[in-house]
Amino acid sequence: MESSDGTGVNVPETGQRGRKWKTAERLLAALAALIAVVGGAVWVVQRITRDSPVEEEQKLVEQLRPGQTFDRTTEIMDDKPHYTQRLASGNRVYQYNRTWERIQLLVDSDNISVLSVGIFADRKDFRPSLPLGALGELTLNRTPYNEVYGGQPDQVFGGCGAHSGSYFEAHSTQNELTWGRRIAVGIHHSGRGNTEILPVCKGLGKAPAGCISADLKEADASRGTECMTTTPAGNFRKTTAITAYVVTKQNEWTDDMFQAPYIVAGGND
Questions:
Q1: Which of 106, 52, 48, 108 lies closest to 81 in space, CA to CA?
Q2: pTM of the model
Q3: Among residues 169, 113, 109, 178, which one has the least CA distance to residue 144?
Q4: In 10 A of CB 222, how many CB atoms?
Q5: Which whole number is the average pLDDT over 155-167?
Q6: What does the H/E/C string look like for 12-69?
């Protein structure tokens, strides 16, 4: 049948041309379905491989180094410090209270250079890997005391009170000229979270008198630190995981670098 103008009526293709058209439609539909499946698979893979929040936080703190400018460090943190305190030395300590940890930055009196970085884990699922210079790295909440630098520290200091406590071992890197950093590792009473200082307190209770200083002082030269690496006082060092890490490029340790996080925050945790 034709229209009155002689152009004819548009009807669906029939025969071989019609079959080709339907085949093309089916191919396009199949291609669209395949694209949807691939897109969905990519989304699933991205979801599976994306870092969890705690993994993202671990990667963030792994970037912190002494010697960086304070401005650069705050750029890395992408946040302003939550607490600050001027110390008697003229230096200032800045503290971040994060979900899994607290971070301390000791900054010089000109407020320019970061003298030391302290990372204090409050939760056991926080496990950043932190450098030990030429000897590799340690992992908070995983590496025990006696695996750091062969287990013999240069200094030990700390103690346990009724509601607080800490224990640190300080080390000078064995490759000071090329790496130039000093490391202190320890555990502390966080006042929050689930880090546990009880095993350390039991170990300290077995230490001989005069074995450990209550604060940062040179160890007794006549005894060294062997009293904290031998039985029975040192037994906890084999199984107790480190939860605190302080690193500096300064020539010596100072008390400024070991401020109790709970005190800097004024108990506002």
A1: 106
A2: 0.78
A3: 169
A4: 6
A5: 82
A6: CCCHHHHHHHHHHHHHHHHHHHHHHHHHHHHHHHHHHHCCCHHHHHHHHHCCCCCCCE
